[in-house]
């Protein structure tokens, strides 16, 4: 059932006060598969990355690594993990440092290079020398950076509605300090999360199934680790805004698939831009073909009528396309 915009806004206001509370590492929120931990030292701190590692009954010898978006977690890939595993792939779904069930470090220098290095270390610890890397949203930016840094470890790159198909700062979106971002993050609740996703992710159409993912995120902001969660989120917002990868897409040398929903309008910072500029940002229907044309040999998959999270909005359509593209590497 799809709910009209006004109804969703009213329900969002009610839901804000009823949001669950989860621990700083998402304690209390269940993942669809057992969660393991990769312990390592980074920037003078002992940290750990949470991940799910699912082995298929009939292995085909290939591994797929799933990287989450900024407002998502490894759990959001739950259905995708099952689909890929049933098709014979070993599947890893990771939580990056600063997110979800992984460590929330203090004084950490977040960069896509650092997160890619952390990810590469986890895979090396498991003896995985080569994998198909699938990244969604912010995870798409990270996947691209990973492929640029470790091309020999990437069998195939799949970017699903990735952030960073345009350089918002270069286009004139004003910078926001980490302090200002932190203040905004501290005001985040279920209502604001749902309103943002409704506008940018789902083209004004809401399904009750999306509520679980709003609660997952809102529960971190409502829990005992809220201050550290908000600070890490502010830091990673700065990372996304100031570390574009779009200027380096022509350097990619791995088989690449770009998947975009034609209704996706995600553009971090668009709320700070002048209205005339904001209207031009996040046009994935235009950005998809433009960027795919800059990546040698890239294949473009468009999901007509879908928004920023096709694996959530239309899982059957998404999984059919993903299985086809991964098999055709």
From TrEMBL:
GO terms for biological process: acylglycerol catabolic process. It holds the Pfam family Abhydrolase_1. InterPro entries: AB_hydrolase_1, AB_hydrolase_fold, AB_hydrolase_sf, Epox_hydrolase-like. GO terms for cellular component: membrane. SUPFAM superfamilies: alpha/beta-Hydrolases (SSF53474). It comes from the Bacteria. Keywords: Hydrolase, Signal. Coiled coil: none annotated. One of its GO terms (molecular function) is monoacylglycerol lipase activity. The keyword Cytoplasm does not apply. Residues 1-18 form the signal peptide. Residues 63-269 form the AB hydrolase-1 domain. PANTHER family: HYDROLASE, PUTATIVE (AFU_ORTHOLOGUE AFUA_2G14860)-RELATED (PTHR43798:SF33), MONOACYLGLYCEROL LIPASE (PTHR43798). This is Alpha/beta hydrolase.
């Amino acid at each position: 059932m799809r709910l009209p915009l006004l109804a969703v806004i009213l329900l969002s206001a009610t839901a804000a006060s009823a949001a669950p509370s989860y621990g700083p590492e998402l304690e209390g929120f269940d993942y669809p598969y057992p969660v393991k931990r990769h312990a390592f030292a980074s920037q003078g701190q002992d940290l750990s990355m949470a991940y799910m590692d699912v082995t298929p009954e009939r292995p085909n010898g290939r591994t797929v690594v799933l990287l989450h978006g900024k407002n998502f977690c490894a759990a959001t890939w739950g259905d995708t993990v099952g689909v890929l595993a049933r098709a014979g792939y070993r599947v890893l779904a990771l939580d990056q440092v600063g997110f979800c069930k992984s460590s929330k470090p203090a004084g950490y220098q977040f960069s896509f290079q650092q997160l890619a290095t952390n990810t590469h270390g986890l895979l090396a610890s498991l003896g995985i020398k080569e994998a198909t890397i699938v990244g969604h949203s912010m995870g798409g930016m990270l996947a691209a950076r990973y492929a640029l840094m470790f091309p020999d470890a990437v069998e195939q790159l799949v970017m699903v509605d990735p952030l960073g198909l345009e350089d918002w700062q270069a286009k004139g979106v004003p910078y926001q300090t980490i302090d200002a971002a932190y203040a905004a993050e501290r005001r985040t609740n279920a209502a604001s999360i749902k309103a943002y996703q409704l506008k940018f992710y789902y083209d004004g159409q809401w399904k009750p199934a999306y509520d679980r993912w709003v609660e997952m995120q809102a529960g971190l902001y409502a829990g005992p680790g809220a201050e550290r969660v908000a600070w890490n989120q502010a830091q990673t917002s700065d990372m996304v805004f100031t570390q574009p990868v779009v200027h380096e897409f022509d350097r990619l040398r791995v088989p690449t698939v770009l998947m975009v929903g034609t209704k996706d309008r995600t553009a971090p910072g668009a709320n700070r831009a002048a209205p005339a500029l904001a209207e031009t940002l996040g046009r994935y229907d235009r950005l998809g073909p433009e960027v795919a044309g800059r990546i040698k040999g890239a294949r473009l998959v468009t999901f007509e009528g879908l928004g920023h999270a096709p694996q959530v909005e239309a899982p059957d359509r998404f999984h059919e396309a993903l299985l086809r593209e991964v098999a055709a590497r």
